[in-house]
């Protein structure tokens, strides 16, 4: 697959100041290699800071057109996009597999979600921002609650789901009447460009959709611009904090942050082990552990810890790691880059330094291609250092660690010890235990007998504590794409009398 970058997209077209091959005028260049085959250079991108003003101008113009369209008209554009993205899903899946390193079968599920998300946004989200009327809210007065778009919105994406996450935010923003600028991760520009090409093919009016390649510096400049009324960010906690620092003085700017996690699962003694094992294996290691909802900490009841851990270890050792498109049915591919690989080994070392035992050690793997291939690893800690780096920080690699517990209160306390609060799950047949977890675990998602990964688009998706700022995505994303106007309406224009005013001089 030849990955031809077309440049930034604004005023309804892709713009590449230096022509398609020559990057001589670029202020910065980004070279992308396939993480599963480092001898394969996928693309080289130019970063043009000079474009930023033009991109924001374009989004402002696009907003002026788009906000005047009815819901029906906007829905019609979204449905055209749905047709195009459905037709191009195989190209998108292949690009995702090569850029991110996720196996092709998994990349296909991300590409398919772009299409299904259009339907969910129209059927489930739109209802939340339709005008509401309260008859006789006061005597002879009706009340209306009207939801207005914010203005040009800026969507900033992470590398691990380059299309799916931004797609959800973009569709909600558009349906609500906003124009958007999308900056994907600098690690996954081509997959994101394919998605933007689909919006272009669907014929959206000029300036409604805008796309910019760039770094954190690009994102920082756009985020700070007064004309940007919404910032929708998915990424790490550290960058989320920087965005808040960059925007807090502009109170009219809505900032929605979807950040990292340090997710735990409780395996109670009455768990059906043969159900819990495959759920947990996927939760810990799919996408090589590079999911915000990946399970990291497994609290296992002491009565079953030996049996459970030994079966989980045996399954982990069967995991096939391979090239995202050239190996036969790998469970997982490589990590995204050299930095991620180094962090993975460093974190496993912190684990050892902080007293955790290595049950399955992390290894650099040779799968027949030069790439960032590592094996999944498992740690065990009887008395974990709850303040240590290993337990507190997100690893974003294929590692999990077991901690045994005797009573459920103790397990909940350990689950709550981190600064994050994205996802958690509990495996048990006892619904009272589930209710206790639902009440006491700090998480935005909490599942019973289902792992922490695989959320639905039809419910809110977001975390508490340092996992977000209480603006969940998925079905409720659209709530953050509007401002609310309360309007009192009366057709009786003869009910106010000067004689009714108390305190007027004769
Ligand atoms: P990252 O924070 O390194 O980068 C995300 C985006 O932020 C990139 O596009 C990057 O260019 C941009 N960026 C960098 N500096 C910036 C700045 N100063 N201002 C604005 N934007 C800036 O994250 P990543 O490594 O791409 O993704 C992994 C992280 O994302 C993990 O922490 C993971 O948990 C999180 N994540 C969260 C969710 C969720 O829904 N909660 C989903 C996926 C990933």
Strand order of the largest sheet: 14-15-16-13-12-18-19
Please state the structural category: alpha/beta
Q: Could you give a short account of the major beta sheet?
A: 7 strands, mixed
The CATH superfamily label of the largest domain reads Aldehyde Dehydrogenase, Chain A, domain 1
The CATH architecture term of the largest domain is: 3-Layer(aba) Sandwich
What is the element layout, followed by pairings?
Elements: E1 8-10, E2 13-15, E3 28-34, E4 37-47, H1 51-66, H2 71-87, H3 89-100, H4 104-125, E5 132-138, E6 141-149, E7 153-156, H5 164-175, E8 180-183, H6 189-201, E9 209-211, H7 216-224, E10 230-234, H8 237-247, E11 254-258, E12 263-267, H9 273-285, E13 295-301, H10 305-316, H11 338-353, E14 357-360, E15 377-380, H12 389-392, E16 399-405, H13 408-415, E17 420-421, E18 423-427, H14 431-440, E19 445-448, E20 460-461, E21 464-465, E22 473-474, E23 482-489
Parallel strand pairs: 7-8, 7-10, 8-9, 10-11, 12-13, 12-18, 13-16, 15-16, 18-19
Antiparallel strand pairs: 1-2, 3-4, 5-6, 6-23, 14-15, 17-21, 20-22
The chain binds nicotinamide-adenine-dinucleotide (NAD).
Nicotinamide-adenine-dinucleotide (NAD) binds at residues 156-161, 165, 183, 185-186, 215-216, 219-220, 223, 234-236, 239, 242-243, 258-261, 292, 394, 396, 422.
Quick take:
This protein is an alpha/beta fold.
What report would you give on this structure?
With 506 residues, the chain is an alpha/beta fold. The protein has 2 domains: 271 residues, Aldehyde Dehydrogenase, Chain A, domain 1; 186 residues, Aldehyde Dehydrogenase, Chain A, domain 2. It has 14 helices and 23 strands. The strands form 7 sheets. A 7-stranded mixed beta sheet has the order 14-15-16-13-12-18-19, sandwiched between helices. It has a 5-stranded parallel beta sheet with strand order 9-8-7-10-11, sandwiched between helices. A 3-stranded antiparallel beta sheet has the order 5-6-23, with no helix packed on it. Helix 12 links the parallel strand 15 and strand 16. Helix 2 packs antiparallel against helix 4. The longest helix is centred in the first third of the chain and has 22 residues. The model has no long low-confidence stretch (mean pLDDT 97). It binds nicotinamide-adenine-dinucleotide (NAD). Nicotinamide-adenine-dinucleotide (NAD) binds next to helix 7 and helix 8.
